[in-house]
Amino acid sequence: MKKNLFWIAILAFVWSCSPSEQELFDEGLRLMEAEEYQKAIEYFDRVLEKNPENTSAYNAKGVALFQQTKYDAAISSFTKSIEKDSSSYKPFFNRGNAYLEKKAFREAVLDYNTANGLDQSQIDIYYNRGLALLGLEQYEDAIFDFDVVLQGNPDNSLAQFNKAKAQLGNNDPVGAVESLFNTVILDKRNGAAYYLLGVTQMSAFGQKEDGCANLKMALNLGFREAKSWVDDFCQE
Fold first, then answer.
1. Half-sphere exposure for 175 (CA within 13 Å, toward CB)
2. N vs C: which end of the chain shows fewer Cβ within 10 Å?
3. What is the pTM (predicted TM-score) of this model?
């Protein structure tokens, strides 16, 4: 009898020491913050063993897979999260990001549209959807999204730069030059912006002196694509 009581006590102790679903999830998040993504996935899998309906664990696992550039596996995990609960914008946004990395721009836009419908306050959705629309050459819609971002934060240099690319695609070199000036004012290390500014100044407006100055700046910043322009058009 005493032996049986002993084993019952041991089992009760082990059971009480078993981490809860929330504790496992929180540890997975901690490991994510420490960039230990594979270990984090193991903890999220343990959560899902306890509760296969935990949509947050599927979403978090997808993020960890995304960080490992395992985009197809991430998409699968985000999709499972959505199947369990489609009321949160997060898995739609995250799945859109994975599609964006795969250059599956149309699928990305569809997910960003859904995410935006669920929460229109998330500025990152507008920016990333703008990138996907840029990839689809839907320039006017991309400009709209980048403008939404810039309304909230005019100092977002990447939004300025990508807006400029959309404006060039939309045959608006005047607007593009303004956006590119804004870009290099905000980020003086953006060689690609100096390059695009210089090319646009020379090709659209015949501004050789200013264009060459910006092309040389791009080259000095390590943007090697500027070299052929400098060699061909900017030698005295």
1. 16
2. C
3. 0.90
207 residue type, one letter: Q
Find the DSSP H helices in the chain.
Answer: 2-17, 21-33, 37-50, 55-67, 71-84, 89-101, 105-118, 123-135, 139-152, 157-169, 173-186, 191-205, 208-220, 226-233
Q: Name the CA radius of gyration of the chain, rounded.
A: 25
Residue with tokens 């810039």: 150
- The answer on pLDDT for 8 being more than 90 is no
**What percent of the chain is modeled with pLDDT above 90?**
91
- In this structure, what token pair is assigned to residue 222? 């390590």
User: Within a 10 A sphere around the Cβ of 207, how many other Cβ atoms?
Assistant: 16
**Tokens (6 digits) for 130:** 């703008």
Q: Copy the structure tokens of residue 205.
A: 């407006």
DSSP one-letter code for 223: -
